[in-house]
């Protein structure tokens, strides 16, 4: 399915008169030529327009308008951060199945919106009245990675330390496409109309991110590959660390080894799993899984996955099974694959109102635990995820199977929809 509308390269070379452009943080006269012709390579920023203290006044972003209508690259006014928020010059953004669920109308979300929710970038500005401790933690120019769950830090669950259940995130961002004052930070350049934000709206040249959702990215880690830390790896870490409470020596099966599932394989090995079983219907993905730590692979189209898992584990089943597809069939496979007292962890999103079946008597008698897990906890977990990558325990290079330019995101989403991306695709933006 075609998500992007094609658009011709447009020359923005033109002249604008000098303008007064007061900033909320500084009042200064700034003027510059509006036209810098866009470079074609690497999605380099051209953000033409007059400049305020060196910052462009506009940017490009990828907009989802409605199901069945192609995505389009649009011009936006430069987003402005508010208190506790940072403006990030986006360097890379991962291509995730969660975006596809929104694009295909399988999950309700406010539209028009900018998709993309796992990003790396550079800090360029703070919102007015931002706490000095945030500025000290993230100096201008800092390299950062952003988590897709952006905790408010103040709600009932955030105070308890369960930031993955943040009330504000679900009530405002996931329900309304806004940040926590109930407003988006994205407005079209042409008419000023609002465009909503899926997480931070990361598939854009700049994005606004609450400081609670950011972690410093060491200079030793590359922008492009590190983008997956904020969703694919973040989600896997939350599933293994919090939902499964995985212990060294546990046996683990992962059903569906795409971007998130393959991250689960690496996290399981990092946590000391004795056996790591990868289940998929793609031989190519299964072959890749062996390079990421899988000790066994099962093609579920060629053999019964549950029976094979029981054979590998001496008839018991695994201690932890992870379902990363969000399908009724794999939901059932996951629950049947665990041993007595085992944990079936569900991380795959499904279309609205899709139901999974479970054997109730076995659930009760054999103490099967079925646990949902959406992600990890940004403030406490994202720095730990970064350390796994920094030390090389998590191999970023092997996890990213495709890099593409901003203008090529179309083909990446189409191939993701067709199951053609083996690991994770990442859009290089600037």
Automatic annotation (TrEMBL):
Species: Ananas comosus
All copies of domain Enoyl reductase (ER), residue ranges: 68-427
Family: Belongs to the zinc-containing alcohol dehydrogenase family.
Gene3D superfamilies: Medium-chain alcohol dehydrogenases, catalytic domain, NAD(P)-binding Rossmann-like Domain
Protein name per Swiss-Prot or TrEMBL: Uncharacterized protein LOC109710875
Keyword Repeat: no
Keyword Ribonucleoprotein: no
Coiled coil location: none
Entries under Pfam families matching the protein: ADH_N (PF08240), ADH_zinc_N (PF00107)
Keyword annotations from UniProtKB, A to Z: Metal-binding, NAD, Oxidoreductase, Zinc
SMART domains the record matches: PKS_ER
Quaternary structure, from the entry: Homodimer.
Co-factor(s): Zn(2+)
GO molecular function: metal ion binding; oxidoreductase activity
């Amino acid at each position: 399915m075609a998500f992007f509308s094609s658009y011709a390269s447009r020359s923005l070379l033109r002249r604008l008169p000098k303008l007064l452009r007061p900033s909320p943080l500084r009042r200064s006269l700034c003027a510059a030529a509006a036209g810098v012709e866009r470079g074609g390579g690497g999605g380099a920023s051209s953000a033409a327009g007059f400049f305020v203290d060196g910052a462009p006044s506009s940017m490009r972003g990828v907009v989802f308008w409605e199901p069945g209508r192609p995505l389009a690259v649009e011009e936006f006014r430069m987003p402005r951060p508010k208190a506790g928020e940072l403006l990030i010059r986006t360097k890379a953004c991962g291509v995730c199945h969660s975006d596809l669920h929104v694009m295909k109308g399988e999950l309700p979300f406010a539209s028009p919106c900018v998709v993309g929710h796992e990003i790396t970038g550079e800090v360029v500005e703070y919102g007015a009245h931002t706490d000095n401790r945030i500025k000290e933690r993230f100096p201008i120019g800092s390299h950062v990675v952003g988590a897709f769950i952006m905790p408010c830090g103040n709600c009932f669950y955030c105070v308890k330390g369960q930031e993955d259940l943040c009330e504000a995130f679900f009530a405002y961002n996931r329900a309304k496409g806004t940040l926590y004052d109930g407003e988006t930070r994205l407005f079209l350049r042409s008419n000023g109309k609002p465009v909503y934000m899926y997480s931070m709206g990361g598939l854009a040249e700049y994005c606004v991110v609450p400081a609670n959702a950011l972690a410093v990215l060491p200079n030793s880690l590359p922008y492009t590959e590190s983008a997956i830390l904020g969703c694919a790896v973040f989600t896997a870490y939350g599933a293994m660390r919090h939902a499964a409470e995985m212990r060294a020596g546990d046996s683990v099966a992962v059903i569906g080894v795409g971007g998130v599932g393959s991250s689960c394989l690496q996290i399981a090995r990092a946590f000391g799993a004795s056996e790591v079983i990868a289940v998929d219907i793609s031989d190519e993905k299964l072959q890749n899984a062996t390079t990421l730590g899988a000790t066994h692979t099962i093609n579920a189209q060629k053999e019964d996955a549950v029976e094979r898992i029981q054979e590998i584990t001496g008839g018991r089943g695994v201690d932890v099974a992870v379902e990363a597809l969000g399908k009724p069939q794999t939901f059932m496979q996951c629950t049947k694959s665990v041993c007595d007292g085992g944990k079936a962890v569900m991380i795959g999103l499904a279309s609205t109102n899709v139901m999974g079946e479970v054997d109730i008597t076995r659930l009760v008698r054999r103490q099967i635990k079925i646990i949902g897990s959406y992600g990890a906890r940004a403030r406490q977990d994202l720095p730990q995820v970064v350390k796994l990558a920094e030390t090389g325990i998590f191999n970023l290079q092997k996890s990213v199977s495709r890099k593409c330019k901003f203008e090529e995101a179309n083909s990446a989403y189409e191939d993701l929809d067709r199951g053609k991306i083996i690991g994770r695709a990442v859009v290089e933006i600037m």
